[in-house]
Design goal:
six-stranded mixed beta sheet, single chain, eight-stranded mixed beta sheet, alpha/beta, 20 helices, 530 residues
Length: 530
């Protein structure tokens, strides 16, 4: 079907965003809202926005007028009878949506596609009482619609393939990528986004690092646009926590989606985030601020950790040869002596580049003294940020040496022979012992969940990757991120964490296990012979 006209029912921010991209694509859009005056107000607000964009040269006056002419307010639901597609963007309530779709069936033709912009409800359930459930489909956009170039297309159990094809073509015409997802809780994006916040909350709950340290590691070291706690403050705990609980309940308490009591407590205490001036962070005049953060999660004051490196020697233990060479090159650049003996000298800092374990277990595995040991995360970009993890018995002088070595890229302040190293502007985070580093734990959970969504056949690996990257603003999609970091390394981290914790949330997805074992891309799909 070629779509020439569509109706938007519900003219809030989301509905008008969809209306904008449809009208700009040359489609006539009928605007209806049950609340008196809402459709007129929505059109007027959009008109002002479009005029500002035109004034900035985003499009011509002729294009502006053509778009505005395509936006038509109607006062009665019966006025949308002849449209090709209806897109519902009303309150997220199953009963109310079901009632609306039954009303729509009394108004439109049998061939008219009825689409819901639901973000969390079952499309099959919305269509359950319809006379023609085969033409009901999910068409889930993300806010702000004109900027978020992704839309999930979700067929219910009865939806015809032709309906999905029509909306895929329509999405492309409106400048968006349409990705097809099974009608499962969270679809692709809200499902794939569960790992980021829940694992960060678990790390915080274990006392591994403060929320601002976790944000910094994941933002500066791993490349996320916002840290998980910054993101929850922006979204609002009153939005994010119910979604966590909903996904967890709908998947019958699958451990991978387990929420954390802290956000429930914050919700109860009305510490909702930016909108109320306090969440994880505090806000004043829209600006984020935190209390003095000069204390590391190991309990040491960072200002006491600067030390003279002129006589320091470093012994390196690494799980991967390339990691060991990177560290040797780094130390050599700063004229630091590398202890290359089979066993470390008693005065040498023991630097362990390990994956998926704490420093205590790593020291036991390498048969070195844990009092000398500090682990370093080699999964992230060392040029941007370094994460260090002493054991619970590591001596302060070795912690100070490691922190001074990796604390900064600033070459302006250094003692005698080591004037290239300074902690004046720290580029490192000291964390308490954790079964796997902060970035390791969060990244492998994001990647593993993406793999498991593929294993469940919810969407193709390519659609999962594109949807998560575009819908959540991650630097990579989970599948391509796994390939970039190496599926074998991701599997190693998960396998070790799972073995040490016995927590089933860390069990590797069969999709990841098989492809890592075979050494093939995580995008590799098996031919179906059914």
């Amino acid at each position: 079907m070629t779509v020439n006209t569509l109706a938007i029912v519900g003219t809030g921010i989301m509905g008008m965003g969809i209306a904008q991209i449809a009208a700009q694509a040359g489609i006539q859009v009928l605007l209806f809202d049950a609340k008196s005056g809402a459709a007129d107000n929505g059109r007027q607000t959009l008109k002002v926005t479009l005029e500002k964009l035109a004034a900035k040269g985003k499009f011509t006056d002729d294009e502006l007028q053509a778009t505005l002419e395509n936006l038509v307010v109607v006062k009665e639901l019966a006025s949308i009878a002849n449209v090709d597609v209806v897109i519902e963007a009303i309150i997220e309530n199953l009963t109310i949506k079901q009632q609306l779709f039954k009303q729509l069936e009394d108004v439109v033709f049998a061939e008219t596609i009825l689409a819901t912009n639901t973000s969390s409800l079952s499309v099959t359930a919305i269509a359950a009482d319809c006379q023609h459930p085969e033409r009901v489909v999910g068409f889930h956009f993300f806010n702000p619609v004109p900027l978020m170039k992704i839309v999930e297309i979700i067929p219910g159990l009865s939806t015809k393939p032709a309906v999905v094809e029509t909306l895929t073509t329509l999405a492309k015409r409106m400048g968006h990528l349409g990705v097809v997802a099974k009608d499962t809780p969270g679809f692709i994006v809200n499902h794939g986004g569960r790992a980021y916040g829940t694992e960060a909350l678990k790390i915080l709950g274990e006392g591994v690092a403060s929320f601002e340290q976790i944000d910094r590691i994941l933002r500066d070291g791993a490349g996320f646009r916002m840290g998980p706690f910054e993101l929850m403050d922006l979204t609002g705990v009153d939005v994010s926590h119910p979604v966590m609980e909903s996904i967890y309940e709908q998947f019958y308490h699958e451990p991978r989606y387990r929420p954390h009591p802290l956000t429930r407590q914050m919700l109860t205490g009305k510490r909702l985030g930016r909108k109320v001036g306090e969440g994880f962070y505090q806000y004043q005049d829209g600006q984020k601020f935190v209390a003095n953060a000069s204390q590391s999660s190991t309990g040491a004051s960072l200002s006491t950790l600067e030390t003279d490196l002129s006589n320091v020697s470093v012994w390196i233990g690494a799980d991967r040869a390339e990691d060991k060479q990177r560290l040797i090159d780094y130390l050599t650049d700063y004229d630091i002596n590398v202890d290359d003996n089979d066993t470390p000298h008693p005065n040498s800092l023991v630097l362990l580049a390990t994956y998926g374990e704490d420093t205590t277990n790593a020291a036991m595995r390498y048969q070195v003294n844990p009092e000398q040991a500090v682990s370093i995360d080699m999964l992230t970009d060392l040029s941007k940020h370094r994460t260090l993890m002493p054991s619970i018995v590591t001596q302060d002088n070795f912690i100070a040496q490691a922190y001074t070595l990796f604390g900064s890229n600033d070459k302006s302040n250094k003692s005698a022979q080591n004037e290239n190293i300074s902690t004046t502007q720290t580029n490192a985070t000291l964390i308490a012992e954790s079964t796997g580093f902060v970035a390791q734990r969060v990244l492998v959970m994001v990647i593993n969940l993406g793999c498991d969504i593929a294993q469940q056949g919810i969407a193709t690996p390519r659609d999962i990757d594109n949807a998560v990257k575009l819908g959540l603003g991650y630097p990579y999609g989970p599948i391509s991120w796994g390939d970039a970091l190496g599926a074998e390394r991701i599997l190693l981290i998960l396998t070790r964490i799972y073995a040490l914790t016995n927590d089933p949330r860390y069990r590797p997805s069969p999709w990841l296990q098989r492809r890592a074992t075979l050494g093939v891309s995580l995008f590799a799909e098996q031919t179906q012979y059914l």
